Amino acid sequence: MTTIHDLPTPALVVHTRELTANLAAMAAARPAAELRPHVKAFKSTELAREIAARHHHHAFCCATLAEMEGMASSGLGDDLMLANETLDVERLGRLGAARDVRITVAVDSLETIEVARLAGVREVVIDVEVGLPRCGCPPAEAARLAEVATDRGLLVRGVMGYEGQCQDWTDPEKRRAEVERSMALLAEAHAEVGGDVVSAGGTGTHAINSLATEIQAGSYVLMDTHYSRLTDLPFRPALRVLATVISARAGAGGWYVADAGLKAFAMDHGDPSADIGHVFFCSDEHTTVSAEPELDVRVGDRVTFVPAHIDPTVAKHELLHLVEGEEIIDVWPVDLRGW
Amino acid sequence: MTTIHDLPTPALVVHTRELTANLAAMAAARPAAELRPHVKAFKSTELAREIAARHHHHAFCCATLAEMEGMASSGLGDDLMLANETLDVERLGRLGAARDVRITVAVDSLETIEVARLAGVREVVIDVEVGLPRCGCPPAEAARLAEVATDRGLLVRGVMGYEGQCQDWTDPEKRRAEVERSMALLAEAHAEVGGDVVSAGGTGTHAINSLATEIQAGSYVLMDTHYSRLTDLPFRPALRVLATVISARAGAGGWYVADAGLKAFAMDHGDPSADIGHVFFCSDEHTTVSAEPELDVRVGDRVTFVPAHIDPTVAKHELLHLVEGEEIIDVWPVDLRGW
Predict the structure, then answer these.
(1) What is the pLDDT of residues B3-26, one digit of tens each?
(2) What CATH homologous superfamily does A16-220 map to?
(3) Can you tell me the ipTM of this complex?
(4) Which of A81, A99, A107, A254 is the most buried (most CB within 10 A)?
(5) How far apart are alpha carbons B232 and B255 in whole angstroms?
(6) Which residues in chain B have Cβ-Cβ distances shorter than 8 Å to A164?
(7) How confident is the model at residue A251 (pLDDT cuts 50, 70, 90)?
(8) DSSP letter string over A175-238?
(9) Fold classification of A4-11+235-333 (topology level)
(10) Cβ of residue A288 closer than 8 Å to a chain B Cβ
């Protein structure tokens, strides 16, 4: 039996019970085609395959060409959406030319429409900005872009609009009001553009976005401390960063040092949380944690951390170790890293 | 001729003029054996090889076993120090058994001394905590640990003590005073421990740490915006993250979106700096930058960012593209990633 004590650290471990429960909870809220899982959150084709097999979510979305390429070459290309803009005609062209793969690309400008056409992509969605200052055209321009895309021979499947500005709002009522405001803009654009796809939403709004025909969510799969502040969500943290205590200063005012630092954790949402004490700070390869007098922690002990932000944490690692208790029951490569 | 316009983005580019100047400036201050370059900052054996060839720094230090293994197997093992504690007897044992490689390991506890002994490592330094609550024994315990290590058949080369708490202090006088305070503690420990190595310092203190026989510095090679706040340092940012403008909302109050986000930048020291405007925010694969009216930026243009923290930024990428102007003159793998 291989256990977490056999792993070199730092390492990612995924608790299968929480993973299974998270997938089931989302499938209950958004069954089958009502969910387009976002692979950017876990970057593993093995995990995507499980999601498709267990809950019949066969359409996925991606943030990068590397994710699109990896999903396509792993036989998970039933309906892949690049929920992002790209100017890379060459790589998009190879995807567009692939057999047995359905590719849809988000476009929000004349330039990105031209890239889709040159790449031989057949289907697009018009990406509409609905409150997050990022990609997406102004709602009033969606109709014109759809017309241009159609003129260029592209099939416009519908619209996409990500209400990212409120995904992490802890007050459910404020979040709901902002979703409604954003989706009113997207509905307006959709009425002009047409098509049967309204792709929107995320983990924080999956249950309250009633406009979207499909929700783009990924963080629900493994969760993190940031999304866990939203107490109305039915998902629980399933991923830990496993580390080893490499130095200890026991006693009052003391600390432990674990061998996982800011190269092993995403830091954009703050420090990770530790199971043995309060995190003082992270440096490249270390996290210093307070020594709590009631815990007997020794040099060589294994400790675990829950990251503050899941997507970029997973992107720093090569493997997901599936565990039941301390036993490792499977290992899935994080094969969709990079760009 | 291959140029930056041929690269898929995001990508790391290294400006050779600034790189060359940084290496020379450090070698002038800390020639040859007075510097032990820290590979954690750039994670590339090709770059380490250049540093050794150009400036005769043949002793390196590493933060991880993966860095030690990569350096050893690339013929850069003249004098490798693991400037960190490890409990991994198996991997350390393979390093200890390697021929033509000199391995020194930091120890700060009975446990880490025992691991070094079991792994067949021959040489250690006693790691002393001198003000940063991280690894290292209290100064008063250094002598006892050195005695135990010697009893176990290990050669104690000396002491190591990292004054990391003040590396980034912008006031040179305060920084100097703190270095003196820290190094007084290390000198005390060294007097008890003996040996000819006093390994300490970093980019921020390389010129003012007069106790260290060798400075452990790495960030000086490529630099970042955080260290650039220290105006007394002679190093300049040599690395950029290259991105493509994938979406644009020109005009007053407008913004551009680049295809490099918080998976491409280390975020622990804050947002990167852009050459086209003020950074509003980073998300996974995007950075939104203000549209400055005087700049004519178009969708498809290349933009560059200087990261806030160099070490963890490099660790997110696979390649360093060496450039002169816009021409790519060499490509070095970031082959020391992971653990």
Answers:
(1) 999 999 999 999 999 999 999 999
(2) Alanine racemase (3.20.20.10)
(3) 0.96
(4) A107
(5) 35
(6) 283
(7) confident
(8) HHHHHHHHHHHHHHHHHHH--SEEEE--GGGTTT--S-SEE---GGGT--HHHHT-TT------
(9) Lyase, Ornithine Decarboxylase; Chain A, domain 1 (2.40.37)
(10) yes
